[in-house]
From TrEMBL, chains A, B, C, D:
Pfam families: TetR_C_15 (PF17918), TetR_N (PF00440)
InterPro entries: DNA-bd_HTH_TetR-type_CS (IPR023772), Homeodomain-like_sf (IPR009057), HTH-type_TetR-like_transc_reg (IPR050109), HTH_TetR (IPR001647), TetR_C_15 (IPR041669)
Phylogenetic classification of the source organism: Bacteria, Pseudomonadati, Thermodesulfobacteriota, Desulfovibrionia, Desulfovibrionales
Organism this protein belongs to: Oleidesulfovibrio alaskensis (strain ATCC BAA-1058 / DSM 17464 / G20) (Desulfovibrio alaskensis)
Record-annotated DNA-binding residue ranges: 21-40
Record keywords, A-Z: DNA-binding
The protein's name in its UniProt record: Regulatory protein TetR
Record bears the keyword DNA-binding: yes
HTH tetR-type domain boundaries: 1-58
Length: 192, 192, 192, 192
DNA sequence: GATGAATGAGACTTCATTCAT
DNA sequence: TATGAATGAAGTCTCATTCAT
């Protein structure tokens, strides 16, 4: 039941995994606790379903973004700005949820593998797009894109979870991150 | 009692915040549960103390690193490599602890402010060091350094917590991050 | 519905009374839980119906055995051997069911009385048969037969439920029980 | 805590295993539910402890009886009467408990083996006593005693659980059982 | 009649915290 | 000051039963 998952997302977001009780989820979803357990075999199963949904969701967003960029022929700078802004907005909507699912939930190995795979996939997808930009350094692009994806993921999450608007406004933050990525993608390769 | 905090760090690291019971902490610390409660008024108080210790610790490490760099006159690239390696090593030793303290603990506002302040301080400290390097772009250096600090923090944590060695080995990862920071710090300013 | 009772017998046998859920019974019977409740007002009602069926069944078996013995003119020893073997085989097929019905189900008084009555009846029936054997001591035959019936019931159940084949093989066990009953039925009366 | 075991015995006796809730046990024992779980790791552990206590208890009773008989030089008939009376009295005090522990509790294999062993031991102990009586048939005495022990166990339990005083008074019942055992123990061996 | 999704009381169990010793 | 047995609120999950379709 989607209502249960939606309720669970809100409850986990608000209370964390441990304090996000199945009863609270059921109440928020407007169903009885018994009904909840007819659709999900355990609390963990709910978290896993949520995580899988999140993984799929992130994949879709990324593909949409890539498609959009290809069609619109935005500049590299615009493309990155779009990407960072989109991710920051998404994490701001539910700043805690993703990390709760990733860090507080006992994830089955299967799902853990799916998660790693989806991150590799994301790196490849982004690489596919960036290959179209001539100013982007092509050597080692997949590793570079992996770091790009990780950077965007973790920086936007961090800022969304603990914003420090007084010190650095949101727009400035996005701008800085884009600058960093741009510099990274267009610099000469460094040899250790 | 430092023994209690040390025990708590290990227990939280191993079991998470919710499953890290006060009894387990007391046993690991070699004291009775009663004694534990004579030094800390609640489980939350332990986590907060741990977080404050962590904040102070991180500050010290940063200062030491800066001092070391100033004395040794390392190149910018070497300096960044040092920094990233150090942080990655630290997060690898206790991949979960920092995020447990940051995300699973109900932090009092006072500590939250201290945390933000320490991050601003870190940005300033790093800026102080980097100002010594002529190749570093000086405009907006504090904001830039804030993003640098955040990037190192979050990327090393992420890689330590969920390494994907098959896809990208640790050394390569460090190298890529350094490359990114180097490019970021030395690039021309971008205007939106 | 006989299908429900048959399913209930299997489910109780396999899981016990408490863990023998009405849903499992319904599934095994190939009907929905709603249908089950249209034929039986409660879980307890199913157990009671099963017990009543068991009581009737046991009565029939006994009568058949008696009829058979009368016709075939078996020796007393053969007759007892038949009886014990038959009961042991029956209890081996469903070692738990009878005791579940007797001990784990809250039996209504009416059924409890029917149960006692059926055991008295059984004693009388057996007495009716044994009276035909001249070697059987006739004094106090009904009480004696009551003990005979109880012995066979409880000993065969016990052996079926917790066999100790290593210590005493099944055939030996049957033989010993028959020997005991034979001795009991043909001995001189004892006066206290 | 012995109070908990005593309370558990009463609660199981009164409600059965499934309905004998840990809360009821705790209340009856006059402790909180938390205390109960400090002494027993689970509901099953309580039942197992109770069963082990019962096994030990039965062994002691048997030994005491044997010692008593040897010293007092009672006749075989008196000895058996003592035995049956004692067991009937014991089962009458808690008619359901033993079978609840035996049939409704998920017993670990270790305890199951201990149970079988204790029954073999009982047969041997009884055989040791009966060997002293010249009128007792000596051939196959251990198997015979096994059946004797099983008979007394199961008949007294059955009568205690579902007495039918109207049909056969308790004294008469004991008398009949003793008569049966006496006949069994002193009869000529039967050959199939 | 048949269905089965929904219900919710109540079971077992955990663990932060207290307090008499 | 140190101890640790005792507490009990609160959590996850089960299952007999109902009732709208």
């Amino acid at each position: 039941m989607d209502a249960i998952l939606a309720a669970a997302a809100q409850v986990f977001e608000a209370h964390g995994y441990a304090a996000g009780t199945t009863n609270r989820i059921a109440i928020k979803a407007g169903v009885s606790i018994g009904t909840l357990y007819q659709y999900f075999s355990s609390k963990e199963a709910i978290a896993v379903a949520l995580l899988e949904q999140h993984i799929a969701d992130t994949g879709h967003r990324l593909h949409e973004w890539v498609g959009h960029m290809v069609v619109e022929q935005h500049s590299l700078s615009e493309a990155l700005n779009d990407y960072v802004t989109d991710m920051l907005e998404m994490h701001s909507r539910q700043p805690r949820l993703q990390h709760i699912l990733l860090e507080e939930t006992p994830i089955p190995e299967r799902v853990h593998q799916a998660l790693l795979e989806s991150e590799r996939q994301a790196a490849k997808t982004v690489a596919g797009l960036l290959r179209l930009y001539p100013e982007v350094r092509q050597s080692g692009l997949e590793h570079t894109c992996f770091v790009v994806v990780q950077s965007v993921e973790s920086l936007t999450h961090r800022f969304a979870a603990h914003p420090d608007d007084e010190f650095i406004p949101r727009a400035t933050f996005v701008n800085e991150v884009v600058t960093m990525l741009l510099a990274y993608l267009t610099c000469e390769a460094r040899h250790e």
